[in-house]
Amino acid sequence: MSLTPQRNKSFLDILSNFLKVFEPYADSYYKKRKTTLNKYPRLIGRFYDDLQDISKGGKRLRGFLVYLGYLIGGGSDLKKILPISLAVETIHTFLLIHDDVIDKSDMRHGKLAIHRRLEKLFGAHYGISQAIIIGDIACFEAFALVNSSRFGERAKVECQKKIYEVLLETAYGEALDIEYSYKEAKVADIMQVADLKTARYSFVGPLSVGAILSKCSGKQMKAISEFGLFVGIAFQLRDDYLGIFGDEKVLGKSILSDMREGKNTLIIHKAKQLATPKDLVELNKIWGNPKSGSRELERIRDIVRKCGALMWCEGENKGLIRAAKQEIGKLTRDRKLQQILSQVADYVVSREK
């Protein structure tokens, strides 16, 4: 499935229009924020420079989904929702910085990860320590952004409550993801990680945050949750696919990290179920070996293709997107928004990064 401009014109148009307003707003926010830091040593200002820089190059999908959720509930004031969209994007940056530390990643969005940049100053521990702090600052800034918005106090409280719930579940998912890199996990365990760490954080959460700030009904909120969970699991499956078959130049990060870490992805779990005994021995030897390289990755690709795990992954994604699209009619009666939601679902399983 390919993301062609013609097929997804509505989605691409509204995303483009959103970004034309969002990006200048984000730049302006950071610029204004840095003017308030003069009383602190230059180090703190550089932290904000790094935050702003590392966030650029991302898809801004979560910030856009906040806006889309807002539209679904009848909201229309783009400028009013911008602080909330930036808050969710800032939380995304916070989690990515910490995730790069956990995964020992070198690159993010085609640039050096924050901890790798800073370790050049005083060593690895310094880089990791300061990266954790920069991530924390991003999280705190997100809540400040919500407070700075023009929504009523009750709406802001509800918004912050939802963000808190999503963050907490994301932390649970991250902890489980780490745990299952060290021990064998069942498919239900891995699916739970995808639910907590990806589906709720990347789709259900952002859409719900936007919807809370408009006039969504309880029925719509339930449909948002169902749609987001289906699309979110598909998003994770696509991530798992890209972790094996992706183009490193397009991804902007190392493609070897999942393999070296021994990450218990759904596609690898399925490959272990379907592989021949001989291939399974080789798969277990390579996956999780920190010394595995490009040659070993090619062998993993061969095994995943040959055993049918790749075909299984593609079939699962088709089923998940089909189920997600069945929820769209419950989300909104607006035909234009229905079309955009359908195209968002298609994008999830066709993206290359």
TrEMBL record:
Family: Belongs to the FPP/GGPP synthase family.
Known cofactor(s): Mg(2+)
Chain segments annotated as coiled-coil in the UniProt record: none
Pfam families found in the cross-reference section: polyprenyl_synt (PF00348)
PANTHER family (UniProt xref): GERANYLGERANYL PYROPHOSPHATE SYNTHASE, SHORT CHAIN ISOPRENYL DIPHOSPHATE SYNTHASE
Protein known as: Polyprenyl synthetase superfamily
GO biological process: isoprenoid biosynthetic process
Keywords assigned by UniProt, alphabetized: Magnesium, Metal-binding, Transferase
GO MF term list: metal ion binding; prenyltransferase activity
Origin organism lineage: Bacteria, Candidatus Curtissiibacteriota
